[in-house]
Amino acid sequence: MSRLLLLVSLLMGTSGLQAEAVSHKTQTITISLTQEPPSLDSLRTTDLVSFFVLGHVNEGLVRYGRRGEIVPGVAKSWDVTAEQMTFRLRSDARWSDGAKMVASDFVYAWRQLNDPAFAAPFATIMHPIKNAVKVQAGELPVSALGISAPNEQTLVVELESPCGYCLALMVHPAFFPVRREFRERLGNQYGAEASSLLYNGPFMLTEWVHGTRLTLQKNPNYWNRDAIHLNEIRVGYITEDNRTRLNLFRDERIALVRLGAETVRDAAKQNLRLRTFASGGVAYLSFNVRSGRPLADLRLRQAIQAVFDADEFVNKVIAIPGYRPAYSFFPSWLPGESGSFTEEYPLDKALVDVLRGAELARQALSARTEHGVPPTLTLLTVTSPTGARIAEYFQGLISRQLGIAVKVDQQTFKQYLQKARQGEFDIALSSWYPDFGDVVTYADLLASWNPNNRGRYANDAYDELLSVLLRSADPFERMRVADQLQRIIQADVPILPMAETGSAYIVHPQLRGVVRRVLGADPDYTFARVVPPADR
Fold first, then answer.
1. CA pair distance 91, 117, nearest whole angstrom
2. Rounded distance, CA 1 to CA 257, Å?
């Protein structure tokens, strides 16, 4: 982007002209987001942008520490057995209006999320809790959910069966507390504006000018406020353009910039210090297998799978350091029995090679098209340079290799989410980032009952194996089941893994203590600070 175009873009957001990347004197930083948060209602949110904001302004029973370990949050201590988890809340936990936090704030929130009338997207994450499945199916009232508050400072969570990952679940925003009186007073406006939320985390959202800027200020009522150095985090720019963000960083307007393929090359030429980070997600194609849709036919999904080359995709299309080819939906960072899951349970390389074969693609396509005229497929993506580049790649690949026309449907992030949920696509460019550190966080996505299963894939064998994975505490049994699940995905092709996500970025030399993490808000500025220029 030229300096003239950059100036025009800055003028469109008047706050941008006043922003500076960092200020040691005021302990203020300015950052950018690629998208506006669609909603900050923790019971309904599913996207990373909203999770990033929520991870700075709200807090659950536990949180992630600087090294990724689980540390106390609202709960100062806890006990975990095969039957239940008991959390003891700290007495100095407060909402941003000064009101004391109590265990019933969790009881209300979790009951809401499990209420079938509420239809929360992340309801299935609650399945390990006693009676959650029956409550969500309408077979039991929400009061039967295995959660209780014997007193203001104690929360008891009964488990449906032994659960080896349930403490880690508590970090997820779906388990955040909500104060009943406040939410019910606001109704559908809850989480839509800065003033329509209560905060119990390190920061408060004090300004939200939609599409333009957000301001997060230090929460004076946060129990651990003395450990928070930053007084203000300004989201001064919301732009999907990689080059604009790099220019903003070079002009000392933002403190951290994530790089795209073209800006990685620019930054390297300018001798800027690049850092890389494996962000833990999986980029994939989601296929709409609803009845009547072209991709309900396995043979056509196999045809697309056969002509796709993950190595070529990562190296030539993405071309960002930190990304790596994905062959399994379960990424390489996930733990197995004693090491990495993918090392302990690799997919059959010979099968991968066969599925890539062009001859199989032609056979599958021939079987699918009775009269030799395949349908036009609609590929849904977000309006962004990266989304456009990937969509163009698949449009050309499918057309060139299979002779099938592909129409690209580019939408804003919010519209993309709406269309994906309603099934208005044949192929959707998707990505999934972990909610907690267990293979379940990926495997659960393709459960027939999961509302985030937007292609509506349903397989009884898959669901049965997933139930074992969810309920077993035996590491050996769980990993064997996970291996069977990844092989079903490979054979059935409800989704097509493309790449394990990574990030190349540059951070301002005065900004210290930023944590990049696979799990939780990323980047995490909670314990960051701005040092004087002399300390660079």
1. 33
2. 15
Q: If residue 416 lies in a helix (H) or strand (E), which one and from where to where?
A: helix 413-422
Cα–Cα distances (Å) from 352 to 346, 355, 404, 489, in that order, read 11, 5, 23, 12
Q: Write down the pLDDT at residue 295.
A: 93
Write the DSSP symbol of residue 197: -
Segment 338-345 mean pLDDT? 89
Whether omega before 72 lies within 30 degrees of 0, making that bond cis, reads no
**Cα(81)–Cα(76) distance, integer angstroms:** 17
DSSP string, 240-304: --HHHHHHHHHTTS-SEEEE-HHHHHHHHHTT---EEEEEEEEEEEEE---TTSGGGSHHHHHHH
Confidence of residue 12 (pLDDT cuts 50, 70, 90): very low
Chain position carrying tokens 């495997």: 443
Of 478, 533, 498, the closest CA to residue 389 belongs to: 498
Residues 392 and 397: their CA atoms lie apart, in Å, by 8
List own/partner pairs for 308-315 with CB under 8 A and 24 or more apart: 308/356, 308/397, 308/496, 308/498, 309/356, 310/497, 310/498, 310/499, 313/393, 313/498, 313/499, 314/498, 314/499
Query: Could you give the CA distance from residue 535 to residue 532 in angstroms, rounded to a whole number?
Result: 6
- What is the 3 state secondary structure string of 418-460? HHHHHCCCCEEEEEECCCCCCCHHHHHHHCCCCCCCCCCCCCH
Q: Which amino acid is at 58?
A: N
Helix (H, G, I), strand (E, B) or coil at 23: strand
- Strands across the sheet containing 213-218: 22-23, 28-33, 232-238, 213-218, 203-209
CA distance 264 to 20: 23
CATH 3.40.50.1820 is held by the domain 3-253+508-535:
no
End-to-end CA, the chain: 29
Which CATH number applies to 279-502: 3.30.300.10, 3.10.310.10, 3.10.105.10, 3.30.300.330? Answer: 3.10.105.10
Buried b (16+ CB within 10 A) or exposed e, 133-172: bebbeeeeebeebbbebeeebebbbebbeebebbbbbbbb
Give SS3 for 401.
helix
Q: Where are the domains of the chain?
A: 3-253+508-535, 279-502
Q: What are phi and psi of 514, to 5 degrees?
A: -75, 130
Spatial separation of the C-alpha atoms in residues 409 and 388, rounded to whole Å: 10
pLDDT in tens, 307-318: 999 999 999 999
pLDDT higher than 70, residue 9: no
Q: How many CB atoms neighbour CB 185 within 10 A?
A: 11
Cβ–Cβ < 8 Å for 307, 535: no
> How many other C-beta atoms can be found within 10 angstroms of the C-beta atom of residue 323?
24
Residues with Cβ within 8 Å of residue 336, at least 6 apart in sequence: 342, 343, 344, 345, 479
Residue 115 pLDDT: 96
pTM, 2 dp: 0.76
Q: Residue 456's closest CA among 269, 261, 290, 258?
A: 290
For residue 367, what are its two tokens?
């079987």
